[in-house]
Request: fold
Amino acid sequence: MLETSANGPFVTGKVALVHAVGMHARPAVKLTKLAKRFQAQISIRASETADWINAKSVAKVMALRAPPNSTIEIKAFGEDADAAVAALIDLVSADFPDRDP
Amino acid sequence: MNDTVGIVIVSHSGDIAKGTADMVRQMVGSEVKVSFCGGNPDGGLGTNVSLIIDAINDAWSSKGVAILVDLGGAETNSEMAVEMLEPERRKLVVVCNAPIVEGAVMAATEAAGGSSLEQVRAVAEELTAG
Reply:
């Protein structure tokens, strides 16, 4: 499931977490590192009722403990918000592949 | 490439120090310099001020170095090692108050994004503040 939309000043997106063990340590580090490459403020949450957390905080992303097949929602605000949401959706939907830094 | 804060791991056990460094390299990547030391010359448990200084030199970066330690002596010996550095380098080294493995992974993740030494330390210590 991939979708993005420009909703007010925020760019938002949703993506299914296909990783077998969910958002554990290794995926959390990859997501945080990628988020930090963008200037935009980026928040994520793992369910519609959860609080938004800062995607650039590795401690908070690890603490998400999102189970496999949950939907990760992403919202970003700032100049490169579009690119940030697209990149994060790409990372999650591709199951956190190893890439060069 | 911009310099990133270096990470030093100081454990009483050489195996823990090396294992923690391996975890950081595999989980975070190779863009952050990580060095480690642990154990005494006889293969037993312990930490050693001169080996800590060597590790600080190995991980040295213009942005500074964050040290992650395990118990008691690792912290006091790391502080002693920092005291023995030249004054201008001393202020670029911090000993983090954080769990050694989790702190090292989180500090390195923060460092990889080009963050300052203070930001790296704050992220490592976030685990302790909770």
